[in-house]
UniProtKB/TrEMBL annotation:
GO terms for molecular function: glutathione dehydrogenase (ascorbate) activity; glutathione transferase activity. Belongs to the GST superfamily. DHAR family. It catalyses: RX + glutathione = an S-substituted glutathione + a halide anion + H(+); L-dehydroascorbate + 2 glutathione = glutathione disulfide + L-ascorbate. The keyword Ion transport does not apply. The keyword NADP does not apply. One of its GO terms (biological process) is ascorbate glutathione cycle. The lineage of its organism: Eukaryota, Viridiplantae, Streptophyta, Embryophyta, Tracheophyta. PROSITE patterns: GST_NTER (PS50404). Residues 49-128 form the GST N-terminal domain. Its EC number is 2.5.1.18. This is glutathione transferase. Keywords: Transferase. PANTHER family: GLUTATHIONE S-TRANSFERASE DHAR2-RELATED.
Length: 255
């Protein structure tokens, strides 16, 4: 991966004034930083609740994109966005306020995690992560079933959540260890944040470790959570719990 140490730049030869040298060097470094920033992928994500140094976004849609970039080993610059105090440039670039938001090589900003992941795959086909279409929607309803369960626990909401997990269990039993067999694909990177939220929310709010009932899902989760990309991008448990504290999904802010 390309890396440049800006502090290693040397003053220009032939300049007589030391002040002039410093001024020219400062301008040069600024232009170089700007150019590097334009070359990199820019990704806006929902800012974490925690101010801890190791805090990451608690938005599963944003983490999905970060996981994709990490698995592709792409260089990117992250911009955490406080949705209650949006910077002016963000509001101008993205009037609808949706996250995640991405820009390639200084180009147009694009929202919606599905679209973004497709664009990453198209622009950077190395380390292919494409999921067969017939597997692409596996586990898609887990967050909504979790939301219903957390809002009102009863036999109906519990059964609906368990039914989604059973579908995943049966699929992994036949096709695992990942959704498409031996290699991780985009559907796994979409499911990983959702399952992490499911684990943490059920443990925190319901004192319920549901995955002991699903051996294949449990093994699948361990595989996902041990990947370097997930360890680097996972949110703090308290930030996940804060997200679910109000029992609402930010469907108007993250996709």
């Amino acid at each position: 991966m390309f890396h440049l140490n800006l502090l290693s730049l040397k003053p220009y030869p032939g300049l007589k004034s030391s002040t002039h040298v410093l001024e020219e060097e400062a301008v040069h470094r600024h232009l170089l930083r700007t150019r590097i920033k334009e070359m990199a992928i820019q990704i806006c994500v929902k800012a974490p609740h925690s101010s801890a140094k190791d805090a990451n976004t608690n938005c599963p849609f944003c983490q999905r994109v970060l996981l994709t970039l990490e698995e592709k080993k792409l260089r990117y610059v992250t911009h955490p966005i406080d949705l209650d105090n949006k910077p002016e440039w963000f509001a101008e670039a993205n009037p609808n306020g949706l996250l995640p938001l991405i820009s390639f090589d200084g180009g147009q900003w694009v929202s919606n995690s599905d679209v973004i992941v497709e664009m990453i795959e198209m622009k950077h086909p190395g380390t292919p992560l494409v999921t067969p279409p017939y597997y692409a929607y596996l586990g898609l309803r887990i967050p909504l079933k979790l939301l219903a369960f957390l809002k009102k626990e009863n036999d109906r909401t519990r059964h609906a959540l368990l039914a989604e997990l059973m579908r995943l269990e049966e699929h992994l039993l036949e096709n695992g260890p990942y959704v498409n067999g031996g290699d991780v694909t985009t559907v796994d990177l979409s499911l990983a944040p959702k399952l992490y939220h499911l684990v943490k929310a059920c443990e925190h709010f319901k004192n319920w470790t549901i995955f002991k009932e699903f051996t294949e899902v449990f093994n699948y989760i361990e595989l996902l959570f041990e990947r370097p990309s997930f360890k680097k991008t996972k949110p703090l448990p308290e930030d996940v719990n804060d997200r679910w504290e109000d029992r609402k999904l930010e469907v108007n802010a993250c996709q």
